[in-house]
Amino acid sequence: MTLPPGQRAVEGFPRFGTHLHHPPPAVPADPVIDIGGALTEPGTLSVADLAALPRRELRADFHCVAGWSATGLLWEGTPFATFYRTRVEPLLTAPVSHVTFEGLDGFQSIVVLADALADDVLLADRLDGQPLDGDHGAPVRLVSPSQYGFINTKHLCRIGFHTTEPPITDRWSPLASHPRARVWEEERHRHLPGRVVRPVYRSLIAPIRALSARGSRPR
Ligand SMILES: Nc1nc2c(c(=O)[nH]1)N[C@H]1C(S)=C(S)[C@@H](COP(=O)(O)O)O[C@H]1N2
Ligand SMILES: [Mo]
Protein backbone atom coordinates (compact mmCIF):
# COMPACT_ATOMS: atom_id res chain seq x y z
CA MET A 1 0.00 0.00 0.00
CA THR A 2 1.41 3.38 -0.97
CA LEU A 3 0.53 6.48 1.03
CA PRO A 4 1.15 10.10 -0.03
CA PRO A 5 4.50 11.59 1.08
CA GLY A 6 4.90 12.07 4.83
CA GLN A 7 1.76 10.10 5.81
CA ARG A 8 1.56 7.11 8.22
CA ALA A 9 -1.34 4.67 8.43
CA VAL A 10 -3.32 4.49 11.69
CA GLU A 11 -5.66 1.76 12.92
CA GLY A 12 -9.33 2.63 12.40
CA PHE A 13 -10.62 6.13 11.75
CA PRO A 14 -10.20 8.62 14.61
CA ARG A 15 -12.50 11.60 15.09
CA PHE A 16 -10.22 14.58 14.50
CA GLY A 17 -10.19 18.32 13.91
CA THR A 18 -10.29 21.74 15.45
CA HIS A 19 -13.60 21.11 17.22
CA LEU A 20 -12.61 18.31 19.52
CA HIS A 21 -13.28 19.98 22.85
CA HIS A 22 -16.97 19.88 21.83
CA PRO A 23 -19.20 16.86 21.31
CA PRO A 24 -20.44 16.48 17.70
CA PRO A 25 -23.15 19.07 16.88
CA ALA A 26 -26.83 18.09 17.20
CA VAL A 27 -28.43 17.28 13.84
CA PRO A 28 -31.89 18.80 13.20
CA ALA A 29 -34.76 16.37 12.48
CA ASP A 30 -35.04 17.48 8.83
CA PRO A 31 -31.56 18.78 8.04
CA VAL A 32 -31.08 21.17 5.11
CA ILE A 33 -28.09 22.68 3.34
CA ASP A 34 -28.25 26.41 2.55
CA ILE A 35 -26.93 27.22 -0.90
CA GLY A 36 -25.69 30.75 -1.43
CA GLY A 37 -23.33 33.09 -3.24
CA ALA A 38 -23.41 34.09 -6.91
CA LEU A 39 -26.88 32.65 -7.57
CA THR A 40 -30.05 34.17 -9.02
CA GLU A 41 -31.56 33.38 -5.63
CA PRO A 42 -30.18 31.63 -2.56
CA GLY A 43 -31.87 28.35 -1.76
CA THR A 44 -31.89 25.31 0.45
CA LEU A 45 -31.64 21.64 -0.39
CA SER A 46 -32.84 19.12 2.13
CA VAL A 47 -30.42 16.34 2.94
CA ALA A 48 -33.19 13.91 1.90
CA ASP A 49 -33.43 15.52 -1.57
CA LEU A 50 -29.66 15.47 -1.87
CA ALA A 51 -29.66 11.74 -1.09
CA ALA A 52 -32.21 11.18 -3.90
CA LEU A 53 -29.76 12.49 -6.56
CA PRO A 54 -27.64 9.90 -8.40
CA ARG A 55 -25.26 8.18 -5.98
CA ARG A 56 -22.00 6.27 -6.03
CA GLU A 57 -19.66 4.36 -3.75
CA LEU A 58 -16.03 5.35 -3.34
CA ARG A 59 -13.27 3.30 -1.71
CA ALA A 60 -10.52 5.67 -0.56
CA ASP A 61 -7.88 6.47 2.05
CA PHE A 62 -8.27 9.61 4.21
CA HIS A 63 -5.27 11.82 4.93
CA CYS A 64 -5.09 14.37 7.75
CA VAL A 65 -2.58 17.18 7.25
CA ALA A 66 -1.12 16.33 10.68
CA GLY A 67 0.24 13.12 9.13
CA TRP A 68 -2.13 10.22 9.91
CA SER A 69 -4.03 8.30 7.23
CA ALA A 70 -7.08 6.04 7.64
CA THR A 71 -7.05 3.43 4.89
CA GLY A 72 -9.70 1.64 2.85
CA LEU A 73 -12.79 3.64 3.84
CA LEU A 74 -15.99 3.00 1.86
CA TRP A 75 -17.97 6.20 1.32
CA GLU A 76 -21.37 6.55 -0.30
CA GLY A 77 -23.18 9.67 -1.47
CA THR A 78 -23.83 12.07 -4.33
CA PRO A 79 -20.86 13.22 -6.43
CA PHE A 80 -20.31 16.93 -5.80
CA ALA A 81 -20.13 17.42 -9.60
CA THR A 82 -23.63 15.93 -10.03
CA PHE A 83 -25.05 18.27 -7.38
CA TYR A 84 -23.22 21.23 -8.97
CA ARG A 85 -24.27 20.53 -12.57
CA THR A 86 -27.94 19.86 -11.76
CA ARG A 87 -28.71 22.13 -8.79
CA VAL A 88 -26.25 25.03 -8.94
CA GLU A 89 -24.98 25.70 -12.46
CA PRO A 90 -28.46 26.60 -13.85
CA LEU A 91 -28.80 29.32 -11.18
CA LEU A 92 -25.36 30.97 -11.49
CA THR A 93 -25.12 34.68 -12.23
CA ALA A 94 -21.34 34.68 -12.85
CA PRO A 95 -18.49 32.17 -13.26
CA VAL A 96 -17.49 30.53 -9.97
CA SER A 97 -13.86 30.13 -8.84
CA HIS A 98 -14.20 28.95 -5.21
CA VAL A 99 -16.67 27.00 -3.09
CA THR A 100 -17.06 27.31 0.69
CA PHE A 101 -18.32 24.43 2.83
CA GLU A 102 -19.61 25.20 6.34
CA GLY A 103 -20.40 22.79 9.14
CA LEU A 104 -22.96 22.96 11.97
CA ASP A 105 -20.01 23.47 14.36
CA GLY A 106 -18.85 26.63 12.54
CA PHE A 107 -15.95 24.91 10.73
CA GLN A 108 -15.37 26.11 7.16
CA SER A 109 -13.26 25.02 4.20
CA ILE A 110 -12.54 26.95 1.00
CA VAL A 111 -12.09 24.83 -2.13
CA VAL A 112 -11.01 25.79 -5.64
CA LEU A 113 -13.95 24.89 -7.93
CA ALA A 114 -11.80 22.72 -10.22
CA ASP A 115 -10.71 20.65 -7.18
CA ALA A 116 -14.30 20.29 -5.96
CA LEU A 117 -15.38 19.01 -9.39
CA ALA A 118 -12.84 16.14 -9.40
CA ASP A 119 -14.23 12.64 -9.95
CA ASP A 120 -13.54 11.49 -6.39
CA VAL A 121 -15.36 14.31 -4.55
CA LEU A 122 -18.58 13.27 -2.80
CA LEU A 123 -21.25 14.76 -0.58
CA ALA A 124 -21.25 11.62 1.54
CA ASP A 125 -23.95 10.45 3.95
CA ARG A 126 -22.76 6.86 4.49
CA LEU A 127 -19.47 5.32 5.63
CA ASP A 128 -18.67 1.61 5.59
CA GLY A 129 -22.30 0.68 4.95
CA GLN A 130 -23.80 2.77 7.79
CA PRO A 131 -25.31 6.27 7.95
CA LEU A 132 -22.61 8.78 8.93
CA ASP A 133 -22.34 9.05 12.70
CA GLY A 134 -21.70 12.21 14.72
CA ASP A 135 -17.97 11.54 14.94
CA HIS A 136 -17.53 11.46 11.17
CA GLY A 137 -19.87 14.19 10.00
CA ALA A 138 -23.62 13.47 10.33
CA PRO A 139 -25.79 14.18 8.49
CA VAL A 140 -23.58 14.73 5.42
CA ARG A 141 -19.96 15.73 4.78
CA LEU A 142 -17.62 16.64 1.98
CA VAL A 143 -15.23 13.84 1.02
CA SER A 144 -12.27 14.81 -1.17
CA PRO A 145 -9.70 12.07 -0.60
CA SER A 146 -7.06 13.69 -2.83
CA GLN A 147 -7.02 16.68 -0.49
CA TYR A 148 -6.08 16.85 3.20
CA GLY A 149 -8.72 16.26 5.85
CA PHE A 150 -9.29 19.94 6.64
CA ILE A 151 -10.91 20.39 3.21
CA ASN A 152 -13.41 17.59 4.07
CA THR A 153 -15.96 19.62 6.07
CA LYS A 154 -18.27 17.53 8.28
CA HIS A 155 -21.88 18.27 9.35
CA LEU A 156 -22.54 20.36 6.21
CA CYS A 157 -25.14 23.12 6.62
CA ARG A 158 -24.10 25.65 3.97
CA ILE A 159 -22.35 25.63 0.58
CA GLY A 160 -21.36 28.98 -0.97
CA PHE A 161 -20.35 29.70 -4.56
CA HIS A 162 -17.91 32.59 -5.07
CA THR A 163 -16.49 34.51 -8.02
CA THR A 164 -13.19 35.34 -6.26
CA GLU A 165 -11.19 33.75 -3.43
CA PRO A 166 -13.07 34.41 -0.15
CA PRO A 167 -11.12 36.08 2.70
CA ILE A 168 -8.61 33.70 4.29
CA THR A 169 -8.81 33.82 8.07
CA ASP A 170 -5.60 31.86 8.75
CA ARG A 171 -3.30 33.51 6.17
CA TRP A 172 -0.79 34.79 8.78
CA SER A 173 -1.25 31.93 11.21
CA PRO A 174 1.88 29.79 11.72
CA LEU A 175 -0.23 26.89 10.42
CA ALA A 176 -1.67 28.74 7.39
CA SER A 177 -3.26 26.02 5.32
CA HIS A 178 -2.51 25.49 1.65
CA PRO A 179 -5.33 26.63 -0.68
CA ARG A 180 -5.18 23.45 -2.84
CA ALA A 181 -4.18 20.97 -0.09
CA ARG A 182 -3.43 18.17 -2.57
CA VAL A 183 -2.02 15.18 -0.71
CA TRP A 184 0.21 13.80 -3.47
CA GLU A 185 1.85 17.23 -3.91
CA GLU A 186 2.22 17.47 -0.11
CA GLU A 187 0.54 20.89 -0.08
CA ARG A 188 0.26 21.15 3.72
CA HIS A 189 1.19 24.78 4.28
CA ARG A 190 0.43 28.00 2.41
CA HIS A 191 4.01 29.36 2.52
CA LEU A 192 6.34 26.48 3.54
CA PRO A 193 7.20 23.19 1.79
CA GLY A 194 5.17 20.28 3.13
CA ARG A 195 8.15 18.20 4.20
CA VAL A 196 9.50 21.07 6.32
CA VAL A 197 6.32 21.32 8.41
CA ARG A 198 5.83 17.54 8.79
CA PRO A 199 7.41 17.23 12.27
CA VAL A 200 5.52 20.26 13.62
CA TYR A 201 2.16 18.94 12.42
CA ARG A 202 2.94 15.42 13.63
CA SER A 203 3.64 16.74 17.14
CA LEU A 204 0.04 18.05 17.26
CA ILE A 205 -1.60 14.63 16.80
CA ALA A 206 -1.30 13.42 20.41
CA PRO A 207 -2.62 16.61 22.09
CA ILE A 208 -5.50 16.87 19.60
CA ARG A 209 -6.46 13.23 20.17
CA ALA A 210 -6.43 13.79 23.93
CA LEU A 211 -8.97 16.61 23.43
CA SER A 212 -11.05 14.28 21.25
CA ALA A 213 -11.38 11.70 24.02
CA ARG A 214 -12.86 14.44 26.23
CA GLY A 215 -15.14 15.87 23.54
CA SER A 216 -16.68 12.49 22.74
CA ARG A 217 -17.77 11.87 26.33
CA PRO A 218 -21.39 12.81 27.00
CA ARG A 219 -21.82 15.60 29.53
N1 LIG B 1 -17.28 20.42 10.65
C1 LIG B 1 -15.99 20.04 10.77
N2 LIG B 1 -15.41 19.39 9.76
C2 LIG B 1 -14.12 19.00 9.84
C3 LIG B 1 -13.32 19.29 10.97
C4 LIG B 1 -13.96 20.00 12.03
O1 LIG B 1 -13.33 20.32 13.07
N3 LIG B 1 -15.29 20.33 11.91
N4 LIG B 1 -12.00 18.90 11.02
C5 LIG B 1 -11.34 18.59 9.75
C6 LIG B 1 -10.07 17.86 9.90
S1 LIG B 1 -8.69 18.74 10.31
C7 LIG B 1 -9.99 16.52 9.64
S2 LIG B 1 -8.52 15.70 9.66
C8 LIG B 1 -11.19 15.73 9.32
C9 LIG B 1 -11.31 14.59 10.30
O2 LIG B 1 -12.42 13.79 9.95
P1 LIG B 1 -12.90 12.68 10.96
O3 LIG B 1 -13.20 13.35 12.28
O4 LIG B 1 -14.08 12.04 10.31
O5 LIG B 1 -11.74 11.74 11.12
O6 LIG B 1 -12.37 16.48 9.37
C10 LIG B 1 -12.26 17.78 8.85
N5 LIG B 1 -13.59 18.33 8.80
MO1 LIG C 1 -6.85 17.26 9.84
What is the H-and-E element order? EEEHEEHEEHEEEEHH
Estimate percent helicity.
10-25%
Rg for CA atoms: 17 Å
Which percent band covers the strand fraction?
A: 25-35%
What report would you give on this structure?
With 219 residues, the chain is an alpha+beta fold. It has 5 helices and 11 strands, in the order βββαββαββαββββαα. Strand 4 and strand 5 form a beta hairpin. It is globular and about 45 Å long. The N and C termini lie far apart (40 Å). Bound molecules: the ligand Nc1nc2c(c(=O)[nH]1)N[C@H]1C(S)=C(S)[C@@H](COP(=O)(O)O)O[C@H]1N2 and molybdenum atom. InterPro entries: OxRdtase_Mopterin-bd_dom, OxRdtase_Mopterin-bd_sf. This is DMSO/TMAO reductase YedYZ molybdopterin-dependent catalytic subunit.
Q: Nutshell version of this structure?
A:
This protein has helices at 47-51, 80-88, 113-116, 194-202, 205-216; strands at 8-9, 32-37, 43-46, 56-63, 68-79, 98-103, 108-112, 122-127, 130-131, 141-143, 156-162.
